C-alpha cells in the first residue's frame, strides 16, 4: 500500500468512530445484568449439582470477556464521548476483570503504537523472538522462551501470572494517577471478594469465581494471542514499519460464529480495531463491511486458529511465523558455524 492509500483507508473508517450513547448503555445493560444473574445462578446451582454449575460458569466467563471489551473501549476513549464516563466505567469494569484501568490503558496504547515493530517490542505485547535471535541466544534464554511459549504455560499459568500477579503491581516509572488507580482497583477487588466470601462462604466463592476467573483469563489471553500470531502476519524493523500495514496485515479477522462474535464484542474484527482504535466495538463489523480493502485482511476460523499454537518464532527471511521443529536444520547449521569459529579462534590463540 502507498501512503496515499493508507490515508484514504483511515478516512474511509473515520465515520464509524462515532460513539452512540444509546448503544453503549444498551451494551452495559445486556452485559453486566446477565453477568450478575449468571454468577448468582452458578452459585445457586451448587446446591443441586456441579454438573449444572460447570456450564453456567463457562457462560459467566463469556460475559466477563464481554465486560472486558467494554473496559477495552473505555481505555481507548471510544465507549463514551465523556472522558470522565470512560474513566469511571473503565475502572469499574477493570475491577470485574481484575485489570487496573490506567495501567492497562497506558501499556495498551503503546501496544497499538508499536504493534509488529521489531525494534519496539516488550510493552503490552507477547514475548516474540526472531529465528536469528533465538539461534544466537544462550541456553537458559532459549529454555525460558520455550517455557513461555508452551501452551500449558501461556494458557495454563498465564491467567494466574498476568491477572492475579502482574496487574496487582505498578510498572516502574508509573505516574501518580496510574499508581493510585492500581491501588484503588486492588482495594475494590479485595473488598468485593471479601463481601462475597462473607455472604456465601469461601468454598462456594472459590467453586464459582475460581473457574470463572480461569476460563475468562484463558480465553482473554487466547484472543490476544491468536489475533497477531498467525503464519503470514506482519513484522518489520522501524525504518520499514507502517502503522496501517501493521493494523491490516499484522492483525487478523477472527471469523467467529455469531453468538461468539457477540460475546467477544466483535473483537474478531481486530484489523479494523488496530486501524482505528476509536471505533466502538459495536461499529467494528459495520466498518469492516463498508470498507472493501479491509476484506483482504487475513481471515482465520476457529479450526484454523488452532494451528497458531505451533508458531513460536518470527522468520525475518521468509516473513512468517515458524515452529521450533521447522527451524531445527537452521539451528544445527548455526551451531556448527559457531563451533567452527570457536575452533578457529582457539587454534589461532594456541599458535
Series of secondary-structure elements, N-terminal to C-terminal: HHHHHEHHHHHHEHHHEHEEH
User: What would you call the shape?
Assistant: globular
For the sheet with most strands, the description reads:
3 strands, mixed
Poorly predicted sequence stretches spanning 5 or more consecutive residues: none
Mean pLDDT: 91
- Strand arrangement within the widest β-sheet reads 1-4-5
Strand content: under 5%
Helix count, DSSP H or I runs of 4 or more residues: 16
Question: Helix proportion of residues, in percent?
Answer: 55-70%
- Give the class from helix and strand content and strand pairing: mainly alpha
Distance between the termini: 57 Å
Number of strands: 5
Gyration radius (Cα, Å) is 22 Å
Question: How would you describe this protein?
Answer:
This protein has 351 residues and is mainly alpha-helical. Helices cover 64% and strands 3% of the residues. The protein contains 16 helices and 5 strands. The protein has helices at residues 3-13, 21-45, 50-75, 83-97, 101-114, 131-136, 139-149, 151-165, 176-200, 202-226, 243-248, 258-263, 270-275, 284-289, 302-305, 328-350; strands at residues 129-130, 253-254, 299-300, 313-315, 320-322. Helix 2 (21-45) runs antiparallel to helix 3 (50-75) and helix 3 packs antiparallel against helix 4. The longest helix has 26 residues, at 50-75. The radius of gyration is 22 Å and the shape is globular.
Amino acid at each position: 500500500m502507498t501512503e496515499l492509500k493508507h490515508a484514504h483507508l483511515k478516512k474511509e473508517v473515520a465515520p464509524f468512530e462515532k460513539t452512540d450513547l444509546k448503544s453503549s448503555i444498551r451494551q452495559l445493560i445486556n452485559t453486566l445484568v446477565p453477568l450478575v444473574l449468571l454468577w448468582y445462578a452458578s452459585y445457586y446451582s451448587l446446591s443441586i449439582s456441579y454438573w449444572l454449575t460447570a456450564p453456567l460458569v463457562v457462560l459467566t466467563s463469556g460475559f466477563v470477556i464481554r465486560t472486558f471489551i467494554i473496559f477495552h473501549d473505555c481505555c481507548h476513549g471510544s465507549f463514551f464521548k465523556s472522558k470522565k464516563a470512560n474513566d469511571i466505567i473503565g475502572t469499574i469494569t477493570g475491577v470485574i476483570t481484575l485489570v487496573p484501568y490506567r495501567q492497562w490503558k497506558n501499556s495498551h496504547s503503546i501496544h497499538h503504537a508499536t504493534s509488529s515493530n521489531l525494534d519496539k517490542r516488550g510493552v503490552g505485547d507477547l514475548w516474540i523472538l526472531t529465528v536469528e535471535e533465538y539461534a544466537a541466544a544462550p541456553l537458559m534464554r532459549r529454555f525460558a522462551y520455550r517455557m513461555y511459549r508452551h501452551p500449558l504455560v501461556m494458557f495454563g499459568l498465564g491467567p494466574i501470572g498476568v491477572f492475579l500477579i502482574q496487574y496487582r503491581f505498578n510498572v516502574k516509572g508509573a505516574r501518580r494517577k496510574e499508581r493510585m488507580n492500581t491501588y484503588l482497583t486492588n482495594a475494590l477487588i479485595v473488598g468485593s471478594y471479601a463481601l462475597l466470601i462473607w455472604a456465601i462462604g469461601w468454598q462456594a466463592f472459590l467453586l464459582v469465581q475460581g473457574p470463572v476467573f480461569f476460563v475468562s483469563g484463558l480465553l482473554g489471553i487466547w484472543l490476544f494471542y491468536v489475533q497477531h500470531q498467525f503464519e503470514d502476519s506482519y513484522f518489520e524493523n522501524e525504518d520499514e514499519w507502517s502503522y496501517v500495514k501493521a493494523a491490516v496485515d499484522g492483525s487478523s479477522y477472527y471469523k467467529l460464529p455469531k453468538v461468539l462474535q457477540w460475546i467477544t464484542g466483535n473483537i474478531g474484527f481486530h484489523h479494523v480495531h488496530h486501524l482505528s482504535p476509536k471505533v466502538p466495538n459495536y461499529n467494528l463489523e459495520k466498518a469492516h463491511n463498508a470498507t472493501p480493502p479491509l476484506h483482504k485482511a487475513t481471515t482465520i476460523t476457529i479450526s484454523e486458529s488452532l494451528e497458531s499454537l505451533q508458531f513460536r518464532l518470527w522468520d525475518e527471511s521468509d516473513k512468517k511465523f515458524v515452529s521450533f521443529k521447522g527451524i531445527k536444520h537452521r539451528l544445527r547449521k548455526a551451531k556448527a558455524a559457531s563451533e567452527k569459529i570457536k575452533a578457529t579462534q582457539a587454534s589461532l590463540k594456541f599458535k
